[in-house]
Amino acid sequence: MDRRTLLALLPAATLAPALLSPGLRTEVAFAQGIDTNAILNDPEAPVSGNPKGDLTIVAFLDYNCPFCKKAEPDLLRLVKTDGRIRLVHKDWPILGDASVYGAQLALAARYQDRYDIVHRALMAIPGRKIPKERMRDAVAAAGIDMARLDEDATAHRAEIAALLQRNLDQADALGLQGTPVFLIGQLKVAAALDYDGFRQAAAQARAKAPNGGRS
User: Fold this and answer.
1) DSSP, res 63
2) Cα angle vertex 197, ends 43, 191, to 5°?
3) Which candidate, 50, 48, 52, 51, places its Cα nearest to that of 61?
């Protein structure tokens, strides 16, 4: 199968290391030739936090990635306590067919304004190699209209597939190797951070921003 399709990325060859802090390792996220605006402002990508915040965090995540799940509560805590962060969700399902299914559920929920609820429900399932049935049960238990979800998944199949392909293309352009990866302002962090790590990275990104923090 061609690598340009999502399922070509099934092997979980490189998961991110455990929590980093202190001594946070960061890289510059956006090299020449990368369409920064397409990554930061894809109109179909779910956005939470403060849409007018002075710092954007782009999170490349997979619903079968235990490190993503470990980092999630601390990322959400930072977004809530900081109040000036715009969080862009990049569903990047690289860990199997069930990961693709989870991403499809979450993105279909966007059409009933329930992406955040489905995203958090899926992230709250512990472990890895979560089967599709368990993902679906978790989404239903979160109070989602499943009939509407199925209808939207079918009606918007092409749009959802196109968004997932764009996320894959962007991850390729950025040279990403595994989940999670967080683009924090102009910085790239390929690690599951704790709350202090996220705070440190956000402060570092704001200090590096040429216009006082806005990215």
Assistant:
1) T
2) 65
3) 48
The predicted pLDDT at position 212 comes to 47
d(CA 59, CA 170): 12
- For 150-171, the pLDDT digits (tens) are 999 999 999 999 999 999 999 9
For β-strands 85-91 and 27-28, DSSP reports them as: unpaired
Nearest residue to 47 via CA among 57, 37, 38: 57
- Strand 27-28 and strand 181-184: the pairing is unpaired
Rounded CA-CA distance 114/108 in Å is: 9
Instruction: Give the chain's largest Cα–Cα span.
Output: 48
The answer to whether 78 and 202 have CB atoms below 8 angstroms apart is yes
3-state SS class at 136: helix
CB–CB of 108/44 below 8 Å?
no
Strand order in the sheet with 181-184: 27-28, 187-189, 181-184, 55-61, 85-91, 47-49
